[in-house]
Structures are given as structure tokens and as C-alpha cells.
Design a protein that fits this description.
Length: about 110
């Protein structure tokens, strides 16, 4: 009989440890879900648009111009803003050249 008790004690300890772990895991899950429900900004996609997300109405250029100083938001904001400026200047020059060529000669 003493051999059975010697085997029963370690098995009981293992079962208790497993059950306590399961209880703690469920408790932790319920606590985190309660905290997540009270702060909707922490859930991904819950907030309409945080400061680092591009809105559907906003172009990529506007997003880069708005966040060019923030590291990690855009790859290299200064270079991209400079590139957008150069593209805009080039588009204006092309539009002027097209207007000159379309205008009737005097």
C-alpha cells in the first residue's frame, strides 16, 4: 500500500500544477480581454485612423508630407518629399510646354 501512496503523491502534485496553470491562463486571458475592451485604440484596426495610418481619402504623397519627420513611418521622408517636389515641378514644366506648343503662333 505504501508503494501506491508513493506513486499517488507525485501524480497528484502534477495534476494540481497543471490545473493551477490552466486556471491562471484563463484568468490572464479574461483580464487581457477586459483591458483590451476598455482601450479600443490598442486593438489593431479598432481606431479609425491613428497618426501613423494613411486614410482612404489621403494620397501617398500627402501621407509622406505629413509624416516626413517621423522615423520608421516612411522609408526616407526627406528624399521622398524632395522627389515629390521635383515631380510636381516637372509636371508644371511639361504643362507649360504643352500650352506653348498648343497656342497658335502670333
Amino acid at each position: 500500500m505504501s508503494d501506491a501512496w508513493a506513486l499517488l503523491i507525485p501524480v497528484t502534485v502534477i495534476v494540481v500544477i497543471v490545473l493551477v496553470g490552466i486556471v491562471f491562463k484563463k484568468l490572464q486571458k479574461s483580464l487581457f480581454s477586459a483591458l483590451g475592451a476598455s482601450t479600443p485604440a490598442s486593438a489593431p484596426g479598432a481606431a479609425p485612423f491613428s497618426g501613423f495610418q494613411q486614410s482612404p481619402q489621403e494620397s501617398r504623397e500627402d501621407f509622406v508630407r505629413r509624416h516626413w519627420q517621423r522615423p520608421g513611418v516612411v522609408a526616407d521622408g526627406v528624399t521622398l518629399v524632395d522627389l515629390y517636389d521635383r515631380i510636381r515641378a516637372l509636371e508644371e514644366r511639361v504643362a507649360q510646354a504643352e500650352r506653348r506648343s498648343a497656342a497658335p503662333p502670333d
